[in-house]
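Example S7 (structure tokens).
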């Protein structure tokens, strides 16, 4: 179950980064006056697929992920190029040590 949760999160984040990168390109296109790229939120499902974008990301999910990512890294948004960098492997934390009172003391026999 844990792997399913991680996989779902990874997929959501990957899709978010694709949409974010596309939206940044779309905004730049509009600023340049070329208007070659319409906003992700305007184009239809088939056009999204043609551009290798997630076909069904809900705006509310995108906004929620954007808030989480920006809180974690407030300097700037993550681009698709950065998102494709191989992630580093995170080792699990070691188990906590037992408090001294919980460690069994050997019994001393009084011979």
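Recovered sequence:
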């Amino acid at each position: 179950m844990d792997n399913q949760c991680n996989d779902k999160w990874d997929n959501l984040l990957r899709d978010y980064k694709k949409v974010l990168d596309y939206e940044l390109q779309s905004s730049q296109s509009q600023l340049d006056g070329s208007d070659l790229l319409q906003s992700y939120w305007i184009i239809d499902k088939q056009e999204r697929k043609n551009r290798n974008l997630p076909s069904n990301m809900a705006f509310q999910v995108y906004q929620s992920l954007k808030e989480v990512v920006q809180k974690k890294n407030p300097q700037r948004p993550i681009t698709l190029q950065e998102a494709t960098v191989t992630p580093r492997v995170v080792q699990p934390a070691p188990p906590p040590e037992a408090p001294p009172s919980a460690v069994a003391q050997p019994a001393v026999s009084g011979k």
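Notes on this example. The chain has four helices and no strands.
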